[in-house]
Amino acid sequence: MIAVIPAFNEERNILKVLRDLEKVGVDAVVIDDGSKDNTSKVVEEFSKNSKINIYLIKNEKNEGKAKAIEKGTKFALSLNKYKYIIYIDGDYQHKPMDIPKLLKKLKNTNADAVFGVRKYKHIPLHRQVSNFLASILTSLAVFIYSKRFYFFRDVQCGFRIIRAEFLKDMNFGDGYAVEHFIALQLAKKGAKIVEEYVSVEYHDEAISYITTKKILEVAKQVIKFIFLKQ
Question: What count of other Cβ atoms lies within 10 Å of the Cβ of residue 227?
Fold first, then answer.
């Protein structure tokens, strides 16, 4: 397994993510998406003596989450040795120590992907509302697009494990639409998707870049993608 980790100005958090990945024995590719801090330096220093393989991709400018994930995924697939690809953010809101639990759920259910679900009591109220609406709308969009019924409880959660073969030729969209685009296309391919609860911590050093404007842009992208592909 290899974790694809988009990171933007995460010098205070990325080391904690990498240390936990080392504990669970998961390799990583970090995409430094045009950071202005020492994110890349922290990754490079840790990788020198790490027990896991750590790869670093550096973007000269910020290209957005979807492009970072696309680059990381294509790199991971090019190595041609990983059966599963893990997606986890670089801000340490999600905990790599949950990976064994997610993997167990995936294997026990013979699934192709397992999506993390955050317990709502740990999510700020305004995020609960946006997550609920996004999940309902994406579930409807998936049905229209794939003609298969899926209900996603937390489609905006970026913590997932997906069988690598399903990620070939994937359209990752743009910005924060990436989670929705992946869900749409996995459903279209007939992937078996299950869900599992994961830990989440909205700590002071984790900065959210999601705004109402960006949420509306996600909806616009999803609608455009669905009807252009019909």
Answer: 10
